[in-house]
Write a structure and sequence with these properties.
453 residues, 2 domains, 16 helices, 12 strands, flat, disordered N terminus, disordered C terminus
C-alpha cells in the first residue's frame, strides 16, 4: 500500500514535522485507511489540520461504539439471570393466554377469579425478576443503558397498572361481565410490550448475540420416558436448558434447568393410586380409591383423594364389618433437594372431611399415613423417572451435575410441571467436550424414545 502525505503547511515544531514524515501511514491507519479524521482534519484532503490537538478516540471515532458496547455487555451471571427472567415472562404470557381462552367458554365466577389470581401472581413473578435483574447493573451499565432501561421501566409500570385493573374487576364480582375480556386483551398487549422491551435490553447487552453466535444457552430437546405405577403406565416428558456460568480456579460452572411434564400423571392419578392403595382383605383393612386429583399450587402442589374405607375382623371363621365410611383427605406436596443433591417430596396432611372412626384413621391413624406416604412416593417416582441425568444429559455432564432447587409449577388450563434447577461443574480440560455434546443436542431435532421400564 502506497501512502502519500500532501505538502505540510508551516509547522513551528520540527520534531512534529519529522514524526509525520517518518510514519505518515501509521497515523492515517488509525482510521482504517481513509474516510476518517486524524486530529480533527480530513485524511486525503488538502492537508492535515489541528495537528497539535491531543490524540485519542474522538466523538466520531468508530471505536467509541465498541467501547460503549463493551461497557454495557452482560456478565456470565447476568446472561443466566436474563434467561430466567425471560422464562418467567413467557410463563406469565402462557398463563394469560390460558385465562383468555377460559373467558371464551362457560364458567363460574369463582373459577374465573381463581385463574385470574394465577395470572396476577405469574405477572408479579415476572416483574420481580425484572427488577432484580436491573438492580444488578454496574454504574457503567446504568449510564450506558439509561434510555433502554427507561423504556423497560415504563412498560413494567403499564403492565402493573393494567394487572391492577383486571384484579379489581375480578374483586368487584364482574367476572362474567363484558369488560373482563377487554381488560384481559389490554393486559396481553402490555405484557407483550414488556417482553419486547426486555428483548431489546438483551440485545443492547449483547445477550442476543451471545445466544446466537457464542452458544451461551443450549436447549436440551424433550426426552420421553415411561414408568409403571402399579399397573398404570405413566408417560413423562422432560426438556431443559444449560447456560454457561462462571469459571473459577480451573472449574467451569454451567447453570442447569430441567422441566418435567407431569400432565399424564395428573390425568391418570386416580388409576395410579388405585393400583397402589386399593386393598380388599377379608379380615383387616379394605380401601377403595374413588377419585384422586393432583393440581399445582406453586411452588407446591396438592392432591385430594376421596376413598371408601372398611375394617373387617374375623371370629370363628366368619368376617364381620366393624367400621365403614367415606372420607376425603388433602395432601400438600413440596418438592425439595437435600444437601447431597438428592431429590425428595415432602408431604403433609391438609384438610380432612370424614366422620367417626374413618375420620380418626385419616387424621392420625393407618389410613392417613398410608395415603400420604403413597402419594408422595408416586410423585417422587414419576419425577425421578423424568429427571434421570443418564437420560436427560450428555455423557460429559452426567457425573458432574447436581440439583440445588425444585418446585412445582402449573397453569390454570391444567398443566403441571416440576422445575429442577442445578449446576454442572467441569474442569477446563472437559469444557470443550461438554460444549460439543451440548451443541449436538441443542441442534438435534430428534426426540429419543426410551424403553418403558
Amino acid at each position: 500500500m502506497v501512502c502519500r502525505v500532501n505538502r505540510l503547511r508551516a509547522i513551528g515544531h520540527a520534531t512534529l514535522a519529522a514524526a509525520l514524515l517518518v510514519s505518515p501511514c501509521a497515523l492515517l491507519a488509525q482510521r482504517g485507511g481513509g474516510g476518517g479524521h486524524v486530529g480533527g482534519g480530513t485524511a486525503g484532503g488538502e492537508g492535515l489540520s489541528g495537528v497539535g490537538k491531543p490524540t485519542g478516540v474522538d466523538q466520531k471515532d468508530s471505536l467509541r461504539d465498541f467501547h460503549e458496547a463493551l461497557a454495557v455487555q452482560a456478565t456470565n451471571e447476568q446472561v443466566a439471570a436474563f434467561v430466567s427472567m425471560l422464562k418467567s415472562t413467557s410463563m406469565a404470557s402462557a398463563e394469560l393466554q390460558a385465562f383468555q381462552q377460559q373467558l371464551t367458554k362457560p364458567g363460574s365466577a369463582p373459577e374465573i377469579s381463581t385463574h385470574g389470581a394465577a395470572v396476577a401472581q405469574a405477572i408479579e413473578n415476572a416483574r420481580s425478576l425484572n427488577k432484580l435483574f436491573l438492580a444488578g447493573f454496574s454504574e457503567r451499565q446504568k449510564t450506558g443503558l439509561k434510555e433502554t432501561v427507561k423504556k423497560l421501566t415504563k412498560a413494567e409500570a403499564d403492565l402493573a397498572q393494567q394487572t391492577q385493573v383486571l384484579d379489581q374487576e375480578l374483586r368487584d364480582a364482574k367476572a362474567s361481565g363484558p369488560q373482563l375480556p377487554i381488560s384481559a386483551q389490554a393486559l396481553d398487549h402490555d405484557l407483550t410490550a414488556f417482553q419486547n422491551q426486555q428483548l431489546d435490553l438483551g440485545k443492547e447487552m449483547s445477550i442476543g448475540a451471545a445466544n446466537n453466535n457464542q452458544n451461551f444457552v443450549f436447549d436440551l430437546p424433550p426426552v420421553r420416558n415411561s414408568i409403571t405405577l402399579g399397573s398404570q403406565p405413566i408417560a413423562i416428558s422432560t426438556s431443559g436448558a444449560v447456560s454457561k456460568g462462571v469459571a473459577d480456579a480451573g472449574q467451569n460452572s454451567f447453570k442447569l434447568e430441567l422441566t418435567t411434564d407431569l400432565s399424564d400423571l395428573r390425568q391418570n392419578f386416580t388409576s395410579a393410586l388405585r393400583a397402589q392403595l386399593d386393598r380388599s382383605n377379608r379380615c383387616g383393612e379394605r380401601i377403595a380409591v374413588q377419585t384422586a386429583t393432583l393440581d399445582a399450587q406453586p411452588p407446591a402442589s396438592a392432591a385430594i383423594i376421596r376413598l371408601h374405607y372398611e375394617r373387617w375382623v374375623c371370629f370363628g371363621g366368619s368376617a364381620n364389618e366393624i367400621v365403614e365410611g367415606n372420607g376425603t383427605i388433602e395432601i400438600k406436596l413440596t418438592a425439595a433437594v437435600a444437601e447431597d443433591g438428592t431429590l425428595r417430596i415432602d408431604s403433609a396432611v391438609g384438610r380432612i372431611n370424614a366422620e367417626g372412626l374413618v375420620g380418626e384413621q385419616l387424621r392420625s391413624g393407618f389410613i392417613g399415613d398410608t395415603v400420604r406416604e403413597q402419594v408422595a412416593q408416586t410423585l417422587l417416582t414419576t419425577v425421578q423417572g423424568g429427571s434421570d441425568f443418564k437420560l436427560t444429559l450428555p455423557p460429559s455432564a452426567q457425573g458432574n451435575a447436581i440439583l440445588h432447587r425444585a418446585q412445582f409449577q402449573g397453569t390454570s388450563s391444567g398443566k403441571l410441571w416440576v422445575v429442577l434447577d442445578g449446576e454442572i461443574r467441569v474442569s477446563n480440560d472437559k469444557v470443550a467436550s461438554l460444549t460439543s455434546e451440548l451443541q449436538a443436542l441443542s441442534s438435534s431435532q430428534a426426540v429419543p424414545e426410551l424403553v418403558p421400564r
